[in-house]
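haha ok so turns out i had the wrong file open the whole time. this is the CORRECT one, sorry everyone. sequence first:
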Amino acid sequence: MSKRIYYLDILRVIACLSVIMIHVCAPYAAKEFGSVNFWAGNILDGLARIGVPLFVMISGSLMLDKNYQMSKDKLKKRILKMILFFIFWSIIYFIIFDVILAGSIRHGQISISKIITSLISGYSHLWFIYLIIGLYLIVPILRLWVTDSNKKYVEYFLILAVIFTYIIPEIANIGSLYFNLFRTINEIINDKLILQYVGGYTTYFILGWYISNYDLKNKNVIYLCGLIGLYITIMGTYTLSLSEGRYVGIPYSNLSINILFQTAAVFVLIKDKFKNTTNKIIDSISKRSLGIYAIHYSIISIMYEILNNFHMDNALINIPMIFITSFIISYIISLIMSKIPLLKKYV
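then structure:
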């Protein structure tokens, strides 16, 4: 699709900022339950959990579109680009964290096999690259049936996915904390029924196409479900963690029904309100989103190291300060790299 779709650009910016916020909030959302620091981290983290699902929905919206010129060579180039992107940033993060900061090689604490394992597994947020490559691989299959003429079958797929990937597993996972019956249900779903075809992130991928192509009725109901989902994300994490006396992040899972509701509501809202909007700032950030995604984690980690050395542990100050700083620095680095021929392919 040659023409830019501006509501997708806006969604891409929201997704990018959300992922940054998740990593900024991480030190606070999983400890000191009930404290001011916890609530600051939990509320903002809960709001931001739409980040990765939005990225997946945007990709599905574009790559499953009937106007997208699909070819074997084009798909190969996309996958190769992601592989090279992953390798490049895995090396960069290895150098920053293991060589420079930890000094593992200098102290003889790491072997060649550990280096290779580290580069293959990637650092933290780079798991997303494996996810997107997996989705790219099944795009040719999905495009065979994710079409206007098969709308009813697409809806049937989404219904199955919502039930067996989002609703039942989440209920079973929460119930398993308290009753053995739910562990049995989990075993049936995961080890016996095994409906993997409607599992994972394929739901978001196809849902992005579906919402982009059809004007959904009862938008207010969708928005209400989104708000309910947000409430479950925030309060569910607090309640479960408090009752267990440890961090329980089940409501934070991207494959939870509450996150699905939140993400779908935001996608519908932005599509409905910003169809014909254009903005140079949004456009620029959108184009740099992959680079920002790659870079931001290092900035956040370094900033927290500095703050910890000064014993600064106030979430109300640290979260907005680190969020804004890491975004700006990541954007500037990504922008600079995009102007350098040898580096632009990695952002």
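The chain has a mean pLDDT of 93.
again sry for the mixup
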